[in-house]
Structure formats: C-alpha cells, structure tokens
Amino acid sequence: MRGGVGVGRGLDAGAWLPGLGAGGGAEPLPAERVRVAFGGAGCGRAALTWGQRDIWATMVRQRNWLPQGGRRPLAPGTRVEDVAAELAYLHGRYQAMRTRLVFDVAAEDGEDSAHGAVRQWVAASGETFLEVYHTPPGQDPDVLAARVEAVYRRRPYDLRAEWPVRMAVVRSGGVCTHLVVIMNHLALDAGGAAVMIREVAAREDAEPAGMQPLEQAAWQASETGQRHGDRTLRYFAKALDRLADGPPPTVQPGPRPTRHWSGRLVSPALARNVAIVGARRAVDDSAVLAAVTAIAFARLTDTDRVLMRPRVGNRFRPALADVVCFVAQSGLLVLELGGTTFDEAVDRSRGATIAAMKNAYFDPQALEAMLASRETGLAMFFNDRHGTEPAVQYATTAAPHPREPQQHRDGSTFAWLHRGPEPTEALSITIDDADGALAVALHFDTHAIAPETVEELAWGIERAAAEAAADGDAPTGIQRMI
C-alpha cells in the first residue's frame, strides 16, 4: 500500500487501473531487464493540473489507463544501450515521465488539500527497467513484439508506484529489431507526443519549452488562474442556459448483455463533401464536421440544439505549445440549429467551435459539477483528429477488426467493431483520416443509446454533408422549437 490507498480501494479511487485486451496463453518472458537510472530538473508535489484532471477522470470513468503507443522497427545498428539511453533521456527531460500519483496525503506546499485528494508527485530522480526479449529461432520478431505490446497493454497500472513508460527491445539473431513503447495517457496527449518524438530524435538539450506541470498547477491555483477559470465557467453557464431553452434530445436506449459497443463508418463521400463545404464557406473542416454531426443528431433526437464536448488540444496557447504533458481538454459547445440552412448551420458551428477552443482551459471538476446540477440530456464527446499526422508510425495490437456483416453504400462502409464490458462515454465520436476517406468512429453505451440509432447517426452524418455540399441554401429541416 502507498499513500493510504490499498489495492482493494485503488480501483475505485483511480490509483490502480486495469489495462485493455483479453488474456490468453503464456506471456513472453524477458531475457534480461536493464536497469536505467535517471534524474531531471523540477520535483515536488502539487495538485493535478486541469489537463491531468481531465484525462485522469476519463481513465477512472472508463476503468482503464488508456494505453498509448505501440511497436515499430528499429533502425539497423541500434543497440540495447542506445535504447536505454533514450529511456533515461525521456525520464530525465520531462517532468511528466517522472510523475506518479499520491492519494490521501495533505498538501505540503501551503495549498489547501482535502483529505483523500489526488496529487501529482514529480520525482527528481529514480530508476526504471528496459526489458529485452529474444526471438526464438525460426520465429518472426514482429510477432514477438506484438505479444509484448499486448502484455504491456493488458497489465494493470498502479499509478502510485509505476513510472509512466513501459519499454522493451526485441532482438533476433543477436540484432535489435523492434521497439515496444507503451505509456499511460496521464503522461501526455497527442500534441505532447509530437513534441517528445521530435526532441528525442534531435536529442534536444535546451531547457524544455513551455509551462511545465508543476508550474501549471501553481498558476491554476493562483489568483490569476482562478479568475481565468471563473470566466470560463461563466461562458459554460450561458451556453447551458441556451441549451435549457429548448427541448432535450429524445434518445432511446437499447441495452445489450455486452453493454459497450463501437462502430465505424469509412466514407470517401464525407471527406469529399466536407472539403466542398469548407471551401465554399472559407471555414475549417472541423467546423463543417461539427455542424453535420450536430445536424444528424438533432434530426434523430427531435431537438433543435445540440450539446457537444469537443476535444481541444490547447496547443495554441503559447505557454502550452511545446510542453510534454497532458493539456488537452473536453470543452463545451451548444449548437442551435432550428430554422437554419446548411450554410447558416456551418457558420454557427464556426463561431461555436472558436468559442469552445477559447474556453477549453478550465477546472474540469467545476464543469462536471455544473453539468450534474442541470438536465442537459445526452452530450456527444467529439474529437476531430483528421489532418494530423503522427511524427512516428507505430503498429499496434489495439487496431479494431470489423465484424461481419458490414454495410456498404455507394463506396462507404459501416461495421461494428468492439463489444465489451469496458465502460465508454455515453456517446463519443472520433474523426480520423482513412486513405482518401474519413473514418467516423462511434463509441457508446447501449444503456444510453441503441445501436440502431448509432448506426443511423453515422449514415446521417454522411447524408447531411452531402446535402450541405449540394445546396448550402437548402434548409436543414430542423424546426425552431421555442
């Protein structure tokens, strides 16, 4: 037990979290574990930053540590000691890689802390291990790397005791062939990963840029930070007041024995039509995608206004642009669509998405308390990731496999993917690129919304984009309800 939270309570408290993936078969064993010592600037305990609170709350709700990373081939000539040096560099350079959580500990820095609060603990130094696996003769080293990756993803994480990075090297015939890197999502977001990968490749030795996590926590607790947070909460309150003026969405649940599902639409037509509308209205594709998604949802749920929780990277803020940690947050926007044409809906979406971006740096616990005090109905979490290329391509065992039968319409394909007990948000939508198409992934709780409705929503997004591209002056068909 560490920090007053035992293993039994750890899951509920968010100190100990399960991994992802089914077990099966004997786990590969490392041939050696190389001890890696590290040390870096900045240490101490502080409250979680707003970004850390956001992703940690997500991890607790979804009851897993949201594994990030995968496996990739190593450059010829790479040695074990080269990878060990990279691991030491990661831990030493970035506070986020030297961070663990502390529970049930009173504040030591003068800040009030309620008993039982979770805090970050950044260590000045420590040690970790690089695992080395040997591929048996006649076997494919990538197969072994995939097995190691699956084990790393599946193993639970004790966020009080384990460092954020799990790393392994796979060797074949005495040659290092593959790297496996898996991190818990508390350590960094996609923007932070891009910075980290760039700096690791260059072995950047200048002082890390931006406001580091301990400094972020201090600023957020300051008078200036609290005033910023209060302004953001006032924006949320006004948006939710507008939401309350209309009818809540009518959503029928469709409970299944396997409660949590995901599906995916891959649509060349959606990519093409979103680009047409974006060019016509001179707006970013993200605003178009938010608009057509909201239109499709409003049509299905008999409402004229839609509550969305867009994922905002917050990297446009100068102090956060190049910091390696988690700063993305799920903001809030309310899109009013009653009596609009398609072009008017897109223009409203542009304004709403810009406002949501500007107001996406806040205490997420304060927003959750506000939402809990109001009748908001079902909200869509919305994450538009298209147009962003990762700095390094990792293969991963976590890639979903479509289930049969798949639905095909005019070059687009819808398929159900995962079904399992692992909790998801009630409804979340993620947009990614897919070889000249857009992939719309929908994760949902069947106790909140029926699978049939979700599939109809996916096709409805494609249909709304096609209608918007064909005639921006045409009505969306959503009636004003106040």
Itemize the secondary structure elements and their pairings.
Layout: H1 7-13, E1 16-17, E2 32-39, E3 44-47, H2 50-62, E4 68-73, H3 80-93, E5 99-103, E6 118-122, E7 125-134, H4 141-154, E8 157-158, E9 165-172, E10 175-183, H5 190-202, H6 213-221, H7 223-244, E11 260-267, H8 268-281, H9 285-301, E12 305-312, E13 329-330, E14 333-336, H10 342-358, H11 364-372, E15 380-384, E16 407-409, E17 412-420, E18 427-433, E19 438-445, H12 451-470
Parallel strand pairs: 7-9, 12-15, 15-18
Antiparallel strand pairs: 1-8, 2-7, 3-6, 4-10, 5-6, 9-10, 11-17, 11-19, 12-13, 12-14, 16-17, 18-19
Helix pairs in contact: 7-11, 8-9, 8-12, 9-10, 9-12
Can you offer a commentary on this structure?
The chain starts with 6 loop residues before the first helix and ends in a 12-residue tail after the last helix. Strands 11, 12, 13, 14, 15, 16, 17, 18 and 19 form a 9-stranded mixed beta sheet that branches. It has a 5-stranded mixed beta sheet with strand order 2-7-9-10-4, with helices on both faces. The chain has a 3-stranded antiparallel beta sheet with strand order 3-6-5, with helices on one face. Strand 9 and strand 10 form a beta hairpin. Helix 8 (268-281) crosses helix 12. It has 2 domains: 10-16 and 25-187, 2-Layer Sandwich (Chloramphenicol Acetyltransferase), CATH 3.30.559.10; 220-470, 2-Layer Sandwich (Chloramphenicol Acetyltransferase). The protein is built from 12 helices and 19 strands. It has helices spanning 7-13, 50-62, 80-93, 141-154, 190-202, 213-221, 223-244, 268-281, 285-301, 342-358, 364-372, 451-470; strands at residues 16-17, 32-39, 44-47, 68-73, 99-103, 118-122, 125-134, 157-158, 165-172, 175-183, 260-267, 305-312, 329-330, 333-336, 380-384, 407-409, 412-420, 427-433, 438-445. It has 482 residues and is an alpha+beta fold. Residues 1-8 and 107-116 have low confidence and may be disordered.
